[in-house]
């Protein structure tokens, strides 16, 4: 019995014939002959499964695994025959290349199993099985009721199987059996007592809803869904952190560090370029000073590290005998772990926790303020690093009044660049340390959370929610894999559009805390998602979740409400068009759109329970905010946390790994992974970014992500804004995610300081809107201008002239080019052409070639059928 405990296959060629009962029996009998030649012990058990190979080469499993004895051959044939007979027509009409019996001989003590539960496939097609589509038992086959009509036996036509049915008032429990062995069990429930062909069938985790014999809805309760768990707050506050700052100068347009300071709460240490041969050597010395046992597990905070200082450090670190582990998301260095021996430190960006300038943070947290320094003075290559002399000219101190500057000159006999630089740099690290310490103390006092565990503001807000506000009833499902991809289709942000580009006497409003408002005021999706196919509203008009729908918009709507993503010649865009397309939307957004004439055909989707899971979080933080003076620590903290939680649930799950390797090592990573980028550090080292080949940079299951939560919040926010876009007798000129510009003041009932109310920000005497995020308006006391991507300001009249078709305004500004390979940043002045460009709506000019209005684009399917 040499074949014991090894899997074998008995293969029977059919030469692309239709598999008939005769051919199946012939293949089965040949299999039994082969089997008997291998069996020497009559007590042996056999594990066996029935499969076929189609003429296309595809393998199909027909039966569940059976465990039999040598006395069960006849029964086994009957079971295999029944499995084959309940397959749908598509199986029986396809040519079969081979019949395959996969089997293994096992010891006699192995338990016999001949009562499989088979996932059924009704005539409405599911897994290839065929079952009746009515509750009328007289239509199932030859039947016999018990004397009391509480049960029945129905012989399945053309089969040795039969249905055993237990009858109740409005439901029946059915077992499909053969030789007293149960193949499957299901329950049918009446939906209409006058129509036995309208019913609901429950089969394990699947639910099927029939109307007049037609399947209208398929549902599936998803298994193995995990939920967001509570975290335990910190028992004490940690002060294991340092602060670090780099001062840079731009010589011939290239930024490099020339001074570094570090502060651990007690001692300051500084490094100055004139003491070292190169900037890299200075950085090397500074980093080496941190590689001490007493700093093990310390966090080193550098303000704006992810966008600035990390550029100078990566190459230097790669030259050291260290293990470098960066975490990078969306181009930002979230965390840089440095390990030597058995010790580690972590470089972090304090700006990712406190997104404000250090000067503003010092003022808000009432700590020592930043110093004053002539930044531009050191950018002159003729100024030596050991410069001693007069105080630099007033032009290098733009923030000082003439009186303050004169006082500085009077009180300074000799101005020393080295001393002033180190003094300024050391003050920065002390200020940053004090800000972080106060922030840490306040967060711990309010929420018992240690900020050192969380590198970013969203991660901190997430921890505060989980530790202080998440309850056992808030079953927030963690969504990954294919299901995550479905919800991503329905996750879009706010709507930003220009409708009328020029106007006078306009009113500009902002919503007070739009996202926190909807988080507090509306329920969110929770519980186990239920997958469905069909128009769920036929059986539940209040169905709640995300639905894939075919959309048909009204034909004459100037400001459409539903967004969709579409590919254009200039890349992917999110637009609010007219026309028809297929997309994924929140059920509430679908209901809202129907009010304005949209029509939908629901294809499939996911259902959820719902509950108010963020009300307490928002109310608690909002109470802190309203009871704090603007600019104070509690005010800043509450404002930051209110606006930082929602996006964490929709965080991109695609996680790359980033490592530093030697030349030549990249081949082994290329073979086994998907390489997303390789950066040559020009020192024999490479930074390589990759995803595991098996996941294709797909979902990381450990990230606690629930895209339906974020997608619900943004959908509800768009619904809230739609109320203002659709006001009667009102012209809307411009909208952003949480703001709107119109020609009339809002009703006072809609305006106030409460969450969700509107706040009048500007009354424009005259305003021009050239494109999303590009506008300028004159009030009675100031000009409000915004140009996305441009930091300087320009006059209103110059903006207004751009309303003329093909007009351009040539601007210039400094642009930074980060060069990790050379450990520097190139500052280059570049031209910027400001003009009206193709945006997300059709541009319309009047007879004088003046930009007059925009109209919605029209799409059909996945294509724009209007010309931009």
Summarize the topology.
Blueprint: E1 8-17, H1 21-38, E2 45-54, E3 59-61, E4 66-68, H2 73-85, H3 89-92, E5 96-106, E6 142-145, E7 151-155, E8 162-167, E9 171-178, E10 181-190, E11 199-203, E12 206-211, E13 214-221, E14 241-251, E15 254-263, E16 268-272, H4 279-288, E17 298-302, H5 305-318, E18 323-329, E19 332-340, E20 343-349, H6 358-364, E21 388-389, H7 402-410, E22 415-416, H8 417-447, H9 457-468, H10 481-488, E23 497-498, E24 502-511, H11 514-521, E25 524-533, E26 545-552, E27 564-568, E28 571-575, E29 578-586, H12 587-595, E30 599-611, H13 615-626, H14 633-642, H15 646-649, E31 657-662, H16 666-672, E32 673-680, E33 685-692, H17 707-725, E34 732-736, E35 739-742, E36 758-771, E37 774-778, E38 783-787, H18 796-800, E39 809-819, E40 824-834, E41 841-845, E42 851-856, E43 858-860, E44 863-864
Parallel strand pairs: 14-17, 17-20, 29-43
Antiparallel strand pairs: 1-5, 2-3, 2-4, 2-5, 6-7, 7-8, 8-9, 9-10, 10-11, 11-12, 12-13, 13-25, 14-15, 15-16, 15-40, 18-19, 19-20, 21-22, 23-34, 24-35, 24-36, 25-30, 26-29, 26-30, 27-28, 31-33, 32-33, 34-35, 36-37, 37-38, 39-40, 41-42, 43-44
């Amino acid at each position: 019995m040499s074949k014991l405990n090894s899997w074998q296959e008995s293969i029977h060629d059919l030469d692309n014939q239709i598999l008939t009962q005769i051919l199946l029996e012939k293949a089965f009998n040949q299999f039994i002959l082969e089997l008997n030649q291998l069996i020497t012990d009559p007590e042996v058990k056999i594990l066996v499964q029935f499969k076929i190979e189609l003429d296309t080469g595809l393998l199909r499993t027909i039966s569940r695994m059976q465990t039999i004895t040598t006395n069960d051959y006849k029964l086994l044939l009957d079971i295999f025959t029944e499995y084959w007979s309940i397959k749908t027509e598509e199986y029986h009409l396809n040519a079969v290349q081979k019949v395959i019996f996969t089997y293994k001989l096992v010891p006699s003590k192995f338990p016999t199993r001949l009562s499989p539960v088979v996932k059924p496939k009704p005539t409405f097609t599911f897994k290839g099985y065929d079952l009746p589509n009515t509750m009328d038992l007289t239509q199932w086959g030859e039947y016999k009721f018990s004397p009391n009509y509480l049960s029945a036996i129905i012989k399945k036509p053309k089969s040795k199987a039969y249905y055993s049915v237990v009858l109740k008032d409005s439901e029946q429990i059915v077992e499909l059996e053969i030789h007293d062995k149960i193949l499957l069990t299901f329950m049918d429930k009446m939906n209409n007592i006058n129509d036995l062909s309208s019913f609901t069938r429950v089969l394990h985790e699947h639910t099927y809803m029939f109307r007049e014999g037609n399947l209208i809805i398929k549902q599936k309760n998803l298994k193995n869904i995990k939920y967001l768990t509570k975290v335990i707050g910190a028992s004490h506050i940690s002060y294991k952190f340092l602060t670090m700052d780099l001062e840079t100068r731009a010589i011939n347009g290239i930024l490099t560090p020339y001074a570094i300071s570090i502060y651990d709460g007690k001692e300051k240490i500084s490094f100055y370029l004139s003491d070292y041969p190169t900037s890299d050597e200075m950085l090397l010395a500074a980093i080496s000073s941190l590689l001490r046992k007493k700093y093990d597990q310390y966090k080193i905070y550098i303000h704006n590290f992810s966008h600035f200082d990390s550029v100078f450090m990566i190459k230097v670190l790669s030259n050291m005998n260290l293990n470098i582990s960066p975490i990078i998301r969306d181009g930002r260095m979230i965390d840089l772990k440095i390990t030597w021996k058995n010790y580690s430190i972590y470089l972090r960006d304090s700006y990712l926790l406190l997104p404000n300038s250090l000067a503003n943070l010092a003022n808000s947290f009432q700590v020592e303020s930043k110093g004053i320094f002539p930044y531009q003075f050191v950018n002159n290559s003729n100024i030596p690093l050991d410069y001693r002399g007069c105080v630099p000219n007033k032009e290098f101190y733009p923030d000082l009044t003439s009186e303050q500057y004169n006082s500085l000159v009077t009180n300074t006999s000799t101005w020393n660049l080295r001393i002033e630089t180190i003094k300024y740099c050391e003050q920065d690290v002390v200020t940053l340390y004090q800000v972080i310490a106060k922030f840490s103390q306040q967060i711990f006092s309010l929420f018992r959370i240690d900020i050192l565990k969380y590198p970013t503001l969203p991660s901190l807000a997430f921890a505060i929610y989980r530790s202080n506000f998440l309850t056992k009833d808030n079953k927030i499902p963690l969504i990954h894999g294919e299901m995550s991809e479905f919800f991503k289709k329905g996750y879009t942000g706010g709507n930003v559009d220009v409708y009328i580009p020029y106007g006078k006497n306009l009113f500009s409003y902002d919503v007070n805390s739009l996202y926190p408002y909807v988080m507090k005021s509306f329920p969110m999706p929770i519980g186990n998602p239920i997958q469905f196919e069909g128009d769920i509203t036929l059986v539940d008009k209040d169905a709640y979740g995300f639905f894939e729908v075919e959309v048909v918009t009204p034909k004459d709507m100037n400001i459409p409400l539903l967004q969709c993503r579409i590919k254009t010649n200039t890349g992917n865009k999110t637009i609010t068009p007219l026309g028809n397309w297929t997309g994924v939307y929140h059920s509430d957004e679908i209901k809202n759109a129907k009010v304005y004439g949209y029509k939908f055909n629901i294809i499939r989707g996911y259902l959820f329970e719902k509950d108010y899971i963020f009300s307490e979080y928002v109310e608690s933080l909002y109470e802190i905010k309203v009871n704090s003076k603007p600019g104070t620590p509690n005010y800043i903290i509450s404002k930051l946390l209110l606006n930082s939680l929602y996006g964490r649930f929709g965080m991109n799950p695609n996680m790359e790994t980033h490592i530093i390797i030697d030349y030549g090592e990249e081949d082994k990573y290329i073979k086994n992974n998907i390489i997303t980028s390789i950066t040559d550090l020009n020192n024999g080292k490479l930074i390589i970014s990759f995803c595991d080949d098996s996941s294709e940079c797909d979902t990381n299951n450990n990230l606690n992500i629930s895209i339906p939560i974020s997608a619900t919040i943004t959908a509800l926010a768009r619904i809230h804004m739609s109320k203002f876009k659709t006001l009667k007798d009102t012209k809307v000129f411009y909208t952003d995610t949480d703001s709107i510009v119109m020609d009339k003041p809002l009703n006072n009932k809609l305006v106030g300081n409460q969450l969700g109310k509107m706040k009048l920000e500007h009354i424009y005497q005259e305003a021009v809107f050239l494109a999303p995020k590009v506008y300028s308006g004159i009030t009675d006391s100031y000009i409000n201008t915004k140009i996305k991507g441009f930091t300087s300001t320009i006059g209103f009249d110059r903006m207004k002239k751009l309303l003329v078709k093909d007009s351009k305004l040539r601007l210039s500004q400094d642009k930074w080019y980060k060069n990790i390979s050379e450990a520097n940043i190139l500052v280059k002045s570049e031209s910027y052409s400001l003009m009206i460009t193709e945006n997300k709506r059709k541009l319309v000019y009047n007879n004088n070639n003046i930009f007059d209005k925009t109209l919605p684009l029209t799409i059909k399917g996945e294509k724009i059928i209007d010309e931009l």
